[in-house]
Protein 1
Amino acid sequence: MYKMTCGHGENAESCQFCLSEQITNQKLEIQQLKTKLELEEQRRSDTLKGLDDLQKLAENTVLDYKKEIAQLKEESAQLRKNLDSEIDFVDHILGKMDYLEKRVESCSPEAEYKQKLLEAEVAFWGSDWGEDGRAWDAQGNIIKENYLGIHLCLLLNDTFYYASADAETVPNGMVKRVWEIYEKWGFDGLLAWAALRRKEQPLKPLITDKYKEAYASLEKEMTSSDYNIRDAL
């Protein structure tokens, strides 16, 4: 039977040198595999540690946000409480003012007619500064002030001038008459009354037949009584 010989001249299957080399090579391969496994294990450990650190950071961030949200809610609740107190105080003051205004109005003989003009939405409460109004010096100081107080005013936007905010004061003592004019001629009558007081005509599209009728009638009334339309202010 033929037997294979190794490089050492021995039987290849029983050569001690060959077996030693094989064992050495296998040990080397095992060591390389072991080193590779250790590196893989280290990488896995580092990855897990990084994930753990990220998780802790996320948890801490969430806790910080929760604390901030809780603090903001607490501050918001306190602000809301303060605001509610201020609103209650303002409502209390406004209630008193409304009560006093109604008391004052109820004492006025013209209160009924003022209320009617307001409800008809042809008048509002406004400030009257008279013909001269206010004047200032170069430093911005008021050197003249002709404030006449709060009066009932007729709403005359876009009547004498286009795209204008305008009003005409109704002097105390004339409110009833103005209401009677409105009852007879409507807004055309109020416009005619304001035109006579101003000594100027409104925009042409507003000069209707009813306006002309009211103007002619009121003009006679004012002329016959020698009524100075601006002295009433």
Protein 2
Amino acid sequence: MVLRNLLAAWLVLLTTAFAGGVATADENVSAYSVEELVAAATEQLTSVESLDSRYSIQYGDSKAPVRCRYARSGSMWNYTELSTERGQEKEKTYCCDGSLIYAFYVIRQQTGKDKWSIVELQEPRAQGNLDPERLLGERLSNVSRSIVDVLKLPSLTKSEETLPDGTIGIRLLARAVPRAIAGPKQLKYDVAVTLDPKHDLLPREILITESGDNVTWPGWAHQWKILQYRQSLDERAHRQRWFPVSAVLTQGTTKAPPPIKMTVDEVRINPTLPLTLFRPNIPNGAGLIRLMRARCEVLGCGASTNCSEVGMLGKCYW
């Protein structure tokens, strides 16, 4: 009971010491046990149940950054790349309603008659592109786990690390973490996350390397470094909270390509999002292609047999 009360008080301290960049009691953070730190960090990371963000990704020395939108609500998600093509806005979208992935692009026209590509229907899977939740450790490269899952593993070790602003951060290290997705060779990785006490114990750095007993690419590392945070409104809790808005990703060996930079321009935390963001209103007559085997009712044709079809909305062929 004493430990529970202590942890509760710590969480209150973390979630109320915000305005003006005022630090939490980071001078005392090293006194907390691994279990308390994991519980506090998990509370912060799992409290984001929905997200809507607009951001850009600069791939190395490329001239123009890629403009993106990413949204999630529970297991539903939307990833859209935004570009300008011949003076018209083009949206390349992958979205998932939990049952299907819809892959398509739309060219927006001033007449209001937008041009749709053929819509691909795919089996549901995790979102695989770079998005701001990567900065929270939501989906770790190669490990195919979230940082919350990794922090639950036994034999976690704790150490202190001085952050660029002089704050004492906490580094949690999990060794020999197996991939969540089994393969022909079960590779294992060491995962280290440095938590920032001044910013709700959010990750300041996430480092993934191959474990010593199964190195396949000497010197390989996958590293996110958070450069900046900003306070945003949590629309469910009705309070301000920190969110990472600038980060750099490096991946590979010492001869790795130039780093990738992500800049978050807008973010809404725990908003209520429309279902059409994850299950688009496909216009009548749009072409559909199913890259899966499933029941035809998905297209509304009423057939009860399994099929693989190409057709128009409301029609399929088998």
Protein 3
Amino acid sequence: MLHRWFAVCVLCAACTGDTTPAREKTAAYFGLKDAFTLVYDVEQTGGTPTTASHIYRKNESFADELAFSREQRNAANFIEETVILAARDEDLRLMRVGDCLESCTDFAAPPVLMNNPVDPNTSVTSVTATTTRSFTGGMTTTTAGKEQHSVIVGAEKDVNTAAGTFRALEVAWTVSYPDEPARASVVRTFFFAPNKGIVQFSQGGKTYKLNNGITP
């Protein structure tokens, strides 16, 4: 009788328990999906309004990682930026910048971009050695460097977009170069809605607001 009771309990646990792997939960939390596109309206002071898109695909470049490439394309379908992100059990990591056609940068220790879950009014800083490969005329040039990634999460607020109003966290991501004091830091600001994705971001003097791809 005891053995039968134990078997029933195990069966019930298997039927009702959540068996989704932790890193797949992280991917869903950060809005990472295969063959998935978000479209943004692009605003620029003194410029003509246009559109851009983020295209996500599963990426097999890194063994044992649940990784996704994210291509940023402009209205003419030209690739402006490619990054590879990895969903781990407890956080989101930046694995690579670039598509390795002209150049790409890899990290000795992939920096943490955000923890899962993201808590308001927190920060995380990662310093890592980098290897940048440039491909020109059949030749490969390799350059070593160092980057510091500082991510500051602010308060949660309502963000109004053409796709609707999202409850999102404001995030500031700064990349600096400890060994190159004359090199300017790169600062990006974005609004992240948990279990949805990035609903607004700013970079290079432009503001990108979600037009379609997800709903509140």
